[in-house]
From TrEMBL:
It comes from the Eukaryota. The keyword Protease does not apply. GO terms for molecular function: carbohydrate binding; rhamnogalacturonan endolyase activity. Residues 293-365, 379-568 form the Rhamnogalacturonan lyase domain. This is rhamnogalacturonan endolyase. SUPFAM superfamilies: Galactose mutarotase-like, Galactose-binding domain-like, Starch-binding domain-like. It holds the Pfam family Rhamnogal_lyase. InterPro entries: Carb-bd-like_fold, Gal_mutarotase_sf_dom, Galactose-bd-like_sf, GH-type_carb-bd, Polysacch_Lyase_4, RG-lyase_II, RG-lyase_III, Rhamnogal_lyase. One of its GO terms (biological process) is carbohydrate metabolic process.
Length: 573
């Protein structure tokens, strides 16, 4: 049951399993056994990393499973360190465990590791096309790629593998995501071909180096990852999956656990709670003031609005507000936080700038809070839905020879198919995408990813998209505002021009942004980017206008952005 960690002291990034140098039986009773394994930094050992790691394993009477948690610590004054990722990895017997279950809909017989090795590699090593020499004839010609089985934290509290003979289920259950990095929009790999079962508690997938933890100038740190439960059950596929889901609900209900022996795992009585109500004021929205219905509200390390999505060192506690914007965040570890939120249907991020200091056993009521989303003037036109994803846009069918058979059955997850970036050049062979307001429909006419155009061989070209629109009575001396929200970016430089495709310099450019790789890894969401662009009225005309969006970096197929939402506002009133 290895706890894998990637650390960096210099330019290399070794991937290693933490090997303990000492162990201790911390609890031994008729009801519980808890073991501790420690690896302590030795400054005389040049191959060692400046972090202490303690792994703990707990077995309880009457439960067919084992709890795992880790305690990572750095003392003040220790050398610099980059913490790339940490994860729990299981590799069950591939001759027995062939059926994988992630959700009610995402379940299937998986190819074997040998099937992958016999397959044809595609654009990157994680993706292969299975050959005719495959152990299961039903899988011949299918694409297998571990990133097709990624999921957000909220959708991955339980996943695992099932063996037919013997009829055994092996499950990873995560009762809380408080120790995971990047907040509620993050997604990770989970179970995938191998067979492999993961619990990735800290990494940069779908975000990049922004989520790596950097320690500089002797910064001290301690964090508890887990506990999580590795659970075993028996029965046929349906009953094993149902039992695993029920066990997950039981574990969530018991969080925070009261049995771990480490003083660093805080029980419920040593935690606090924060409550309040969030409303939104947008004078151009219906009724002006509305409840922040279904807002994601969370506590994370102090920072600027939206900083939580790049935060990894501390803990995060998130809930979904009810229909009236009320929220209660329970079982918060004592500490100093900011309260953050984002609301479906509105751009931007809310932050309560006063520090929220949570104490053991304390309850804090923040009362009624108000978020005023970015807004200068009335909406002249808009594209998409402000929900931080590109899921509402046109997702093409995959190449018929590059399909994943499970994703074929999931119409709402078509974006998980392999090679969709290739389809842009096929669908727009002569000219780039052109979208006309009040004529085109973003669900069918706006490609979900602004990618490069393949020009032949290994040559790629920048793509320039056009937004065509008509305006009445343009005020030449006024300033209009273009709101540009991105759901993801990868090694991209987005340039904005108005009424002139060949205009240098552009009205606006992002500069190179993003290392999220969501295009290659079958996502519609990475980090959220929001840009506010002043458009002088003198650049617009009464009548027909065009905004040109150019993604300027084109050295490969995966450069690009995904749009969340675009809006042009009239002058401030």
């Amino acid at each position: 049951m290895p706890l894998s960690i990637s650390l960096r002291k210099g330019l290399t990034t070794p991937d290693s399993t933490i090997i303990a140098t000492k162990y201790n039986v911390t609890v031994k009773t008729d009801e519980q056994v808890e073991l501790s394994f420690t690896c302590t930094w030795d400054e005389k050992n040049s191959s060692n990393f400046p972090v202490n790691v303690e792994k703990r394993y707990v077995v309880l009477r009457g439960l067919s499973g084992i709890y795992i948690y880790g305690i990572y610590e750095r003392l003040k004054g220790w050398p610099d360190l980059d913490f790339v990722q940490t994860r729990i990895v299981f590799k069950p017997d591939g001759d027995k465990f062939k059926y994988m279950a992630l959700t009610d809909e995402r379940q299937r017989v998986m190819p074997s590791a040998e099937d992958r090795s016999n397959g044809t590699p595609l654009d990157y090593k994680e993706a292969v096309k299975l050959s005719t020499n495959t152990s299961n004839p039903d899988l011949i010609g299918e694409v297998d790629d571990k990133y097709q089985y990624s999921a957000q934290y909220k959708d991955s509290r339980v996943h695992g593998w099932i063996s037919d003979d013997p009829a055994v289920g092996l499950w990873m259950i995560t009762p809380s995501n408080e120790f995971k990095n990047g907040g509620p929009t993050r997604q990770r790999m989970h179970s995938h071909t191998g067979p492999t079962m993961l619990n990735v508690v800290s990494c940069g997938h779908y975000a990049g180096a922004d989520l790596e933890i950097q320690f500089r100038n002797g910064e001290p740190w301690k964090k508890v990852f887990g506990p999580v439960l590795v659970y075993l059950n028996s029965g046929d596929k349906a009953s094993a999956w149902l039992d695993a889901k029920n066990q997950m609900l039981t574990e969530v209900g018991k969080w925070p656990y009261d049995f771990p022996a480490s003083v660093d795992h805080l029980k419920s009585s040593h935690r606090g709670a924060v409550s309040g109500q969030l409303q939104v004021i947008d004078r151009f929205a219906q009724n002006g003031s509305v409840a922040a219905s279904n807002a994601q509200v969370g506590l994370a390390a102090p920072g600027k609005a939206g900083s939580w999505q790049r935060e990894s060192k501390g803990y995060q506690f998130w809930v979904v507000a009810d229909g009236t914007g009320n929220f209660v965040i329970k079982n918060v570890r004592p500490g100093t936080y900011n309260l953050y939120a984002f609301i479906p249907g509105f751009i931007g991020d809310y932050v309560y700038n006063t520090s929220v200091i949570v104490e053991s056993g304390g309850e804090i009521s923040l009362g009624v809070l108000t978020y005023k989303p970015p807004r200068d003037g009335p909406t002249l036109w808009e594209i998409g839905v402000p929900d931080r994803t590109a899921a509402e846009y046109f997702i093409p069918d995959p190449d018929k020879d590059l399909r994943n058979y499970l994703v074929d059955k999931l119409s709402d997850q078509k974006y998980r198919q392999y090679g969709l970036w290739r389809r842009y050049t096929e669908l727009y062979p002569d000219e780039d995408l052109s979208f006309t307001i009040n004529q085109n429909d973003y669900s069918s006419d706006w490609f979900f990813a602004h990618v490069t155009r393949k020009a032949g061989g290994n040559q790629y070209l920048s793509a320039t998209w056009k937004i065509n629109f008509s305006l009445d009575d343009v005020k030449a001396t006024a300033t209009y505002k273009l709101r540009l929200a991105l759901a993801s970016a990868h090694a991209a430089d987005l340039e904005v021009r108005v009424n002139g495709q060949i205009v240098d310099p552009p009205l606006f450019k992002t500069g190179q942004i993003g290392k999220e790789n969501a295009i290659a890894r079958h996502g519609v969401q990475g980090l959220y980017w929001l840009f506010h662009i002043d458009v002088p009225g003198g650049k617009l005309v009464t009548g027909n206008n065009t905004v040109y969006l150019t993604q300027a970096i084109a050295t490969g197929p995966f450069h690009g952005v995904m749009y969340d939402y675009i809006r042009l506002e009239g002058p401030a009133t």
